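Think of the structure tokens as a kind of shorthand, similar to the way a musician reads notation: each symbol stands for something richer, in this case the local conformation of the backbone. In the example below we present two proteins back to back. Begin with the first one, reading the sequence and then the tokens, and try to describe in your own words what changes along the chain.
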Amino acid sequence: MNKHAKRSQIRNCRFSQAVLIYFFLNGSLIAQNNNDPNEIATLREYVVKGISAAESIIPLAETVDSVFGNERSLMEAPRGVSVITEALLRDRDVDSVADMVELSPGAYSPSSYGNNTTPNIRGDVAETYINGQRRSANIFGIDPSFNSIESIDVVRGPGSVAYGPGFESGGYVNYVTKKPHLDDFFTTLSLRLGAWVPGHTSYFSGSFGIDHNLPLVADKLALRVSYDGQENETFFHQNGGREDSQDLFLALSWRPHEKLSLDWNAQYIWQAAPQLLGVNRPHNGLIQNNEYLNGVPTDPAQIAPDFFSIRTHVTGTSDFQPEQTLLSIGDFSNANIVRTQLVTELQVSAGLKLVNRTFAEF
């Protein structure tokens, strides 16, 4: 018998022994387990740690009532809805409409006189709601306040009749304001100094915020105060402009009965922001060499082929620095906004809830 045959027999023998040992041990264990059918096996303890829905950035953890008025999960809502939760707002540092649309498919943020005030959804201007109540149009208005916002629902498609008539069909944004916590005392401070870009121009863009929650009566009454103020020294300042704001938000929650709730909020906003029209008379020389066309409109006025612009009698060019802004006396806004809202809910039965919303804005 050669060496290869001997090695083959040895391998086969070892394999047969391993198989016999396996089945012997396995059969012994089965027989041992079957000896006492009433024996209870004890498993090791496993601890699964998680976070509450309020702290989750996953939208599916929240229910929404901005589609048909009643609370539903996103999987049950017959609309395309993007929920930006409180945790996601904080995690992604969302404090503008431009930041918000990055988390909302089908939405974008066009600039209105230099400000991002109202998003577009599915190519149409979006309606704006506050706690399910439609507010006035803000296309050329102020920057929305994110000091008072706890979460945002971006809904694609026309609004529901539950919230009254609307004009836009692309979709709407429902801003859910902060509510007091009836059983939790906390204070949150925030401070921002600005952005520093090595090798480039950096500006001071300071802001300070405080969010304070105060339970007044256990499980009955609570107050929440939120403030945000900013004073920026951006390139607008070197041209005589301002980009400052003061924002104060108050909220009060009262539960006089287990089936009755009253949520009141009020807000005062002051904004001083420039309104930029951009640079007119664009041409290749402006883009490539910073050359601005001098001249005056033709007299009488002649409409350009685009049926919008007016022809200009060009007399020459002048240097234009991109870091400078074209501002005039009337290009600065000084907005003062006061708004208040009261939401009353009465749970009549397990399947019936009455809601009354009252909103005023000046």
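Once you have a description of the first chain, move to the second and do the same.
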Amino acid sequence: MPIDAIRTAQELDLVKATAELKETVLQEARGYHERSVLAAQSFRLTEGEPFRGIRVAKATEHIFANMPIRIRRGELLLGWHPSTHASETTQKAIQEANEYLRKQNYWVGASEGHMAVDNETVLRVGLGAIAEAIRERREALDPIHRDTPEKQAFYESARISLEALQSLIRRYAALAREAADETDDLLWRAELLESAAVCDQVADGPARTFREAIQLTWFLFLGVAIEAGGSHHCFGPGRLDQYLFPYYARDLASGVLDEEHAQVLIDQFLIKCNEFDGPSMSAVIMMLGGRKPDGTDGTNALSFALIEATDRVRCYFPGADISWHSDMDPAFVRRAVRLLRNGKGQPAFFNSDVIVKGLIRYGVPVEHAVDHLPSTCTETSIMGRTNPWVAWPYVNIPMCLIYAMFDGKHPVRETQDRPATGLPQTYDELKAAFH
């Protein structure tokens, strides 16, 4: 059979496999709650360690080394978020582990997530270079400064966590090779060996191709989510069309990547964003368009490819948000508006010009301000530069007004929930009570 015919058959099979992957993900997606059992196992071994960060890092290391991994047929983008379908015995073990971890201060009283990590830098320099930078900073600490032990613990925690992610990626490289040895399908075997080579590269080095870049992006997303808990914790890929575009454009131009494989990789990325849990009030944000640091329109061919994939895949996550501005490509605006017709509530539009002005007013440099994104729906963060630790307290402004109107009492329960300010008779009295 001619090579072109073999490649066409392969691509058509991958498109079918991607559709099957979507069905599997939608049927199986649950939070990964057995991770608590693994975290508790590690915490029991580190009792007496004075630094909580090191204990948490070693728990992450234990989770990544022992969590189940899986490659489904036709899955080019490796990295599975395990799903909990617990028996009564397993559920009891999870409950006991959570009770122990709460007593051990495993979780902190703030919301992790609600952000996008600095994918662009990681893709450019690689995990190995970041691990080396951590080691260098630790070694450069003043050995007699009173703050040094705490800083050493921080860097050690970062090193352990990062090397744990590298080891997880290498586990997938090994699994891909095992699966390649076991299959009789030559096309699938070739894809598995390619996936193994991709994992070998991104476990330590920078991304060189679009496939390596999107694979490392997924591993980063998967890693921080599992480190934080059983679901996605409102982490998100951020401005995917900006930091992946150089790889996408270069590979398409050189012939390293064809449109069909690009579509499969993009579709699988969007589908796999739904592995963490079913639809919920939380968010996984993908921001499209916006401006470049020099102020020009950031819309590009990958922006269009991602909006088309969102329409094609039609999953709950990730939320496709448009960073609209006055100079945006009109064709992209029309395509984004047309996407609203599918009834999925996407995309959301954010006025980037207004948001950037506000961030600049608060001292954010313009080249950073353009990388804004809604970390869920209630706050603006800067991709790779913000860990807002948000999510509470939420302030119910209308309820504050109601309390001001009713002397601090709940109008239904009639309980005195707020200070007694009297029943206002004038607007000025209402304004004073509200303030």
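Compare your description with these statements about the second chain. The beta strands are 285-289, 319-324, 348-351, 372-374, 380-382.
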